[in-house]
Amino acid sequence: MPTLRDRFGDIQARIASAAQRSARYAASVQLVAVSKSHPPELLREAVEAGVVVFGENRIQEARMKIPLLSKSIRWHFIGHLQSNKVRQALPLFELLHGVDSLSIAREINRVAVELGLHPKVLLEVNVAGEGTKFGFTPEALRCQIEELVQLGRLEIAGLMAIPPPAAEAEDSRRYFVRLRELRDVLQDQARIGLPELSMGMSGDFEVAVEEGATIVRVGSALFGERSGKQWRPVGADFLDA
Fold first, then answer.
1. Closest CA to 23 of 209, 172, 199, 201
2. Pick the CATH number of 4-223 from 3.20.20.10, 3.40.50.1220, 3.40.630.10, 2.40.50.140
3. pLDDT tens-digit profile of 122-166?
4. Calpha distance 109→90 (Å, rounded)
5. Exposed/middle/buried for 18, CB within 10 Å: 0-12, 13-18, 19+?
6. What is the value of pTM for the model shown?
7. Which residue, among 108, 137, 133, has the nearest Cα to 125 in the 3D structure?
8. pLDDT per residue over 25-52, tens digit each?
9. Which of 35, 100, 192, 224 could cross-link with 54 by S-S, CB 3.0 to 4.6 Å?
């Protein structure tokens, strides 16, 4: 059975091959290990294998887990950020992937002023117009990008998207293309750089890299399928969203 180190090496090789197919360097793609519900000891094993960036999507879980691990680890928040969790989230994460509305962007900006921080964020786009997902519609983002850019405490680094579930990785390609093309339009419209494209997960990250992903979020391909039992530290009765 492949070890975590074996799986990490395989993912790195697949990223490198996909990058080469699109005339890019493998180093231009950052792997974020999706560590939601996984215990600290498994994350330590991942660090020993070479993982340096982890993605959490529950604030309380992250607050409990981060102090138990090396300070060299870098943390991204990859979930839906609620306004009442902004103050807790900003000091923990170097990048927020899912800024999905003008209202939450304003709240992040307001709290960042109070905390003296300059958070780095990605704008989440609902590329398929799914009613069950958060995110800007492409049309709304084109209309609001100038106002977003005026939020002076935010460093808007790029865009993020999660395509609809698909039977085949190739089925996601058109959504990755759509996000990249929207990024190019917004750069020209707002005269800003948006270098980061966070797109692609365990089942389709190679296609995402071929279409320009600079960040891929990989969980099950690295850690294996979750058992369904959520990690919680000793003495914690619950973990919120």
1. 209
2. 3.20.20.10
3. 999 999 998 888 999 999 999 999 999 999 999 999 999 999 999
4. 10
5. buried
6. 0.93
7. 137
8. 999 999 999 999 999 999 999 999 999 9
9. 35
